[in-house]
User: Which sequence fits this backbone?
């Protein structure tokens, strides 16, 4: 299992940050991703691995009109 | 020039550290003008903008005052930072009055040039009181120190013609048109309760008069009821130091830093300079938040037809600076130029459409089941020129359409209009009926609260269903987000001072997606901090968008990225640089809270502002209908299992809906309890005297109002 924004989700072997964003349909561009507290830059989403047990935060930075 | 009925001269005050120190009182009943002194007490407790508006409005009205009472005032003020040119979003005028929609103070803000030009003409605030049969234009010339009450006879009704004619009339040359700003409404505002105000600015690149709106709460209806057809201000001489700031070097330094961020990051972040606030249409659709068919669902596959790409590629002029005040590099006020109208009195004309903003596309589009960008732009244009608050219009029409869909009203009862979801022809005809004062137009112009009563009493509609699906709170229609899965945002709309507008708090992503505020205490803190922080923009004459629609590249490193700490510090520094004061970010919140609590007590004074007035329609909290439940069945079933320990497989659909409703209504009650506690209110929503004392707002006038409710 992994946690995404403090909610548990199934882990999938070999998944990357990009896979995680796609699975959750996190399409908003203006986000901050942290894996176990470590910031992941956007250019690394395709390669950055997510491991079983990881705590992932995907913070959407939007506070409305 | 127009016939002058009365004229006054004055000596324009010099602006010192953001304030002129004077306010202007005009009474249209007897064409009277008075100067008032802006006191240190006012600056200390109310700062400016909405704070000054509410302070003057309190003095003007009594608990018995109604929106059309002569003593009701329209008050407008730009605030001490308004008019600076070094930072983005610094030209906002705040407007307050007792609203025809709610019976309590409404506050609404607009870009455009009027507020800054008013201040530079020597006036920190403008009060308009009284009523007159003979319709007037009021002209203020800030260079000559001249105020004229003029006959309005023969002027066009609708804003795009009226403001153009007045701008041309009062400018001293073609080049001088940029120094003139007009406040006007339109023909529909005479026949509906949610008429709005257009604030103009002349665009020398397009050579047209353009508009931003103080849209919410019926301000245009009030102005026309008073007999004021338009306000015109002229001031020539805007410079970077016209506000006479205490520390212009700091202003310049912060401004340069911010403009570089805008230049480097906007395209990577929200794309405000290409599409403005409508950049979020597909985002909302993808996150199940785009209100569709009266907030029944949060999206539709057809939303791709009204995507930012469509508007950018087919309609919106690109590559021209589009700020609604000098110095704004966010430049988000987009236009569709050379747009040929197909309906109404101006069919065939090519016009400039200001917009569409997000609320326009979501409200006049998806929430009405309309996914035709051309129709949305035509609705947008006519709402603007007729003086119609498009949010109240859209949400009201969405409600009517659902009533029709569910057999609660008939086509005959709508005067033959086929107001089915998706029928843009019928929506446009309804707008034209509002402008002509004919047919179903003025009835739809009453707004949802009055329509619920009318439909039940006259058409035999089911009052319980109307209550559930009528998206209003305090009498004001909700703005355009399908927020029912975010408990915090349910409060962000209903636990507001003026009614459900998103400018107090927009917490949907923090709550529903990021899960950053899981507990009631977390949500209550967010519903304390963000409304207080955002109130501050309205005190100072600022636009909210530059705060967080663009953020510094290293914002991710901060502990609280949602607050955008560097930009908060920018605002603290700008305030100090203009006023010469020495506030910090905590004092900034305190400045806001004083005015926020004042407004809550003002509501109580007007007979509202208690817990009973903060309840939301159930459509805001959860699924009303079977179709709504089924559209998110997996989510709702999971919540029954995880949050209530129930087995949805053993329950009928109606049982699941009823059980979900009971749970969600209880959650909302608990949210109210937590928010009231955090805001220093009693369980009935009344600010506690000891809390008012703590924040320095234990004014006898406030204590007197709350005392009977303690």
Assistant:
């Amino acid at each position: 299992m992994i946690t995404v924004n403090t909610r548990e989700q199934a882990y999938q072997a070999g998944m990357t940050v990009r896979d995680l964003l796609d699975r959750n349909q996190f399409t908003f561009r203006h986000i901050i991703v942290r894996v176990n507290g470590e910031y992941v830059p956007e250019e690394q989403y395709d390669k950055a691995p997510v491991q079983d047990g990881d705590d992932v935060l995907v913070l959407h930075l939007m506070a409305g009109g | 020039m127009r016939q002058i009925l009365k004229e006054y001269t004055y000596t324009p005050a010099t602006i010192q550290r953001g304030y002129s120190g004077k306010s202007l009182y005009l009474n249209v009943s007897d064409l009277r003008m008075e100067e008032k002194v802006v006191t240190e007490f006012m600056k200390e407790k109310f700062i400016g903008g909405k704070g000054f508006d509410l302070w003057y409005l309190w003095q003007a009205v009594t608990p018995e005052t109604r929106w059309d009472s002569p003593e009701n005032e329209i008050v407008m003020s730009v605030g001490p930072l308004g008019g600076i040119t070094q930072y983005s979003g610094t030209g906002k005028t705040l407007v307050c009055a007792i609203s025809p929609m709610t019976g309590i103070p409404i506050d609404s803000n607009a870009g455009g040039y009027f507020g800054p030009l008013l201040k530079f003409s020597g006036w920190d605030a403008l009060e308009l009181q009284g009523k007159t049969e003979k319709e007037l234009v009021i002209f203020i010339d800030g260079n000559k120190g001249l105020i004229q009450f003029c006959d309005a006879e023969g002027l066009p009704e609708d804003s795009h013609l009226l403001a153009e004619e007045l701008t041309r009339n009062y400018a001293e040359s073609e080049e001088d048109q940029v120094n003139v700003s007009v406040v006007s409404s339109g023909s529909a505002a005479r026949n509906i309760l949610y008429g709005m105000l257009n604030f103009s600015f002349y665009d020398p690149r397009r050579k047209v008069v353009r508009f931003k709106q103080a849209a919410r709460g019926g301000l245009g209806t009030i102005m026309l009821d008073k007999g004021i057809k338009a306000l015109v201000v002229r001031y020539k001489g805007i410079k970077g130091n016209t506000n006479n700031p205490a520390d212009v070097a700091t202003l310049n330094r912060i401004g340069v830093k911010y403009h570089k961020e805008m230049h480097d990051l906007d395209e990577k972040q929200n794309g405000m300079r290409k599409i403005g606030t409508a950049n979020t249409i597909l985002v909302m659709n993808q996150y199940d938040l785009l209100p569709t068919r009266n907030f029944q669902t949060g999206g539709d596959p057809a939303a791709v037809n009204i995507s930012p790409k469509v508007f950018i590629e087919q309609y919106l002029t690109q590559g021209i600076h589009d700020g609604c005040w000098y110095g704004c590099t966010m430049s988000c006020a987009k236009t569709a130029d050379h747009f040929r109208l197909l309906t109404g009195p101006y069919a065939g004309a090519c016009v400039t459409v200001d917009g569409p903003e997000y609320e326009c596309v979501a409200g006049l589009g998806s929430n009405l089941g309309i996914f035709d960008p051309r129709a949305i732009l035509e609705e947008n244009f006519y709402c603007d020129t007729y003086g119609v608050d498009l949010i109240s219009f859209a949400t009201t029409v969405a409600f009517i359409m659902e009533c029709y869909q569910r057999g609660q009203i008939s086509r005959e009862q709508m005067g033959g209009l086929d107001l089915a979801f998706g029928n843009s022809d019928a929506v446009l005809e309804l707008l034209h009926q509002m402008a002509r004062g004919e047919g179903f137009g003025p009835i739809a112009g009453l707004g949802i609260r009055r329509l619920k009563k009318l439909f039940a009493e006259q058409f035999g509609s089911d009052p319980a269903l109307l209550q559930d699906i009528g998206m209003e709170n305090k009498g004001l229609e909700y703005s355009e987000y399908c927020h029912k899965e975010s408990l915090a945002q349910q409060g962000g709309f209903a636990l507001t001072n003026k009614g459900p507008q998103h400018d107090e708090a927009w917490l949907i992503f923090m709550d529903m997606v990021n899960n950053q505020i899981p507990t009631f205490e977390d949500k209550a803190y967010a519903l304390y901090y963000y409304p207080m922080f955002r109130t501050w923009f309205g005190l100072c004459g600022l636009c909210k968008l530059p705060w967080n629609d663009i953020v510094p590249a290293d914002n991710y490193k901060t502990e609280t990225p949602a607050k955008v700490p560097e930009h908060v510090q920018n605002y603290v520094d700008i305030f100090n640089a203009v006023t010469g004061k020495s506030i910090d970010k905590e004092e900034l919140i305190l400045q806001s809270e004083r005015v926020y609590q004042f407004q809550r007590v003002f509501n109580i004074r007007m007979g509202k502002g208690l817990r009973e007035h903060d309840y939301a329609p159930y459509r805001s909290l959860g699924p009303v209908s079977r179709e709504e439940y089924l559209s998110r069945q997996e989510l709702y079933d999971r919540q029954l299992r995880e949050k209530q320990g129930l087995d949805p497989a053993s329950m009928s659909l109606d049982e699941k809906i009823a059980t979900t409703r009971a749970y969600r209504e209880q959650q909302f009650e608990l949210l109210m309890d937590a928010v009231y506690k955090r805001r220093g209110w009693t369980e009935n929503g009344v600010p506690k005297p000891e809390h008012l004392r703590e924040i320095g707002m234990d004014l006898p006038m406030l204590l007197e109002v709350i005392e009977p409710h303690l």
In short: The interface with chain B takes residues 5-7, 25-30, 32, 39, 57-65 of chain A (CB under 8 Å).
